[in-house]
Amino acid sequence: MTGLFLALLGASFSAQAQSLRISRDMVLQAEAPVAVDADFIVALVNSEPVTNNDVRLAMGRVRQQLEQRGATVPPADQLAREVLEQLVSERAMLQHAVETGVRVDEASLLQAEQSVAAQNGMGLEEFRRRLTAERINPASFREDLRRQILMQRLREREVETRVQVSEGDIDDALRARRAAMAGDPSVNLGHVLVQVPEAASESRVRELEARAQEAATRARAGEDFGALARAFSDASEAATGGQFGLRPYSRLPELFVEATRNLAVGQVAGPVRSPAGFHVLKVIERQDGAAANMKVVQTRASHILLRPTPQLSEAQAAERLAGLRRQLQAGQASFEALAREFSQDGSAREGGDLGWAGPGMFVPEFEQVMNALRPGEVSEPVVSRFGVHLIRVTERRERELADREQREMVRAQLREQRAEDALEALVQDVRGRAYVEFRDPPRP
């Protein structure tokens, strides 16, 4: 079983887990036109044919996905062979799902189609017309959604419900993690960089070194290091006080490690020279590896939620929220005021504030968009299983997890890893039991 198939199968499951949040570009490129030659059968899977045009169409999708991820696209002949194997495994899995009683009813399929349409800011009929205008067969697109739902339900039934993680498994994982970290302590360094241009003259280098020395002298005298970083540093973290945050020594440049390894908390090193310029480093905090706890990035976000009703479709809710977003961008209203007036969530009275949240606290389709926002940014309308949202991120922070929270995070990580392993085993088993007859090789 190739990694390519498992990666794409996982992406298909992920799309369903996120309520089919598909961007406009993904929708309109999902069935890229290919030149139509005389078609022929390249393989049979339990008597179901896979054609050359099936392979060519799938190659276009895979090539697009690889390019979007910045991955290398294999040569056409190699890609055709890998895609054919992917299609064979996929057909075998879909047949297995149907044979074992997995079904997708018309209501579920219609709901999925409506969700995709709403995510693209359209009603269902408008969305179908747009697909047709873009030379995408709406019936083929609908069948692709059906296959995705079918595969997701197969995974839920045969993989996720059978994965078990015991308390002993969590204890073992935590002990292994602490043992691995025991030899690698963490340190939080304050950093001032006085950058030296490549073509700087000797006199200019001396001026810049003197500037770095001034920052170091004032830091040793006890001045606030954050203020010094903002005043002197050319580094990207200067605006946030020059601190890297707690990092294992293995994740720091060797120059920084050597300069600070023997310093006590509060001491300052430098200026030290690197190809980038002169560095001043202060040990803000140090933590032994064995005592280091897991940390998690938390986000404080607000939202405005509209719930679709028979009188308000998802597309109409998305358009209404897009109008509110334009008001925010024009400075005509505050997010808090709009949330109090329009949001249909219990957070409305708090101006839409959802408080601090760690990974996994929101549904995936909401969290994915939230995580992509920078503090202060407001999203486009986002469809989730609860309705349509505008999301604003206020701030982020890194927080050390309590013991109970660490255990829950490890539990989730172990479940995910075991689910992936079980999925791979299931695919290999189903593929191995299928009757497959390869005929003429595909011609890409």
Secondary-structure map with pairings?
Layout lengths: L2 H15 L6 H5 L12 E5 L2 E4 H17 L7 H24 L6 H14 L4 H10 L4 H21 L8 H15 L4 E10 L6 H19 L4 H8 L14 E2 L5 H7 L7 E7 L2 E11 L7 E12 L7 H16 L5 H8 L10 E5 L6 H9 L9 E3 L2 E14 L2 H31 L2 E3 L6
Antiparallel strand pairs: 1-2, 1-11, 3-4, 3-6, 5-6, 7-8, 7-10, 9-10
Helix pairs in contact: 1-4, 1-7, 3-4, 4-7, 4-15, 5-6, 5-12, 8-15, 9-10
Notable characteristics:
444 residues, alpha+beta, Triger factor/SurA peptide-binding fold, Chitinase A, domain 3, 3 domains, four-stranded antiparallel beta sheet, 15 helices, 11 strands
Summarize this entry quickly.
The protein has 444 residues and is an alpha+beta fold. It has 15 helices and 11 strands. The chain is 49% helix and 17% strand.
Task: Walk me through this protein's architecture.
Helices cover 49% and strands 17% of the residues. It is α+β, with helices and mostly antiparallel strands and 444 residues long. It folds into 3 domains: 3-163 and 421-438, Triger factor/SurA peptide-binding fold, CATH 1.10.4030; 186-287, Chitinase A, domain 3, CATH 3.10.50; 295-400, Chitinase A, domain 3 (Roll), CATH 3.10.50. The strands form 3 sheets. Strands 4-3-6-5 form a 4-stranded antiparallel sheet. A hairpin with a 2-residue loop joins strand 9 (382-384) and strand 10. Helix 4 (76-99) crosses helix 15 (403-433), helix 5 packs across helix 6 and helix 8 (167-181) crosses helix 15 (403-433). The radius of gyration is 27 Å and the shape is globular. The model is unreliable at 1-36 (pLDDT under 50).
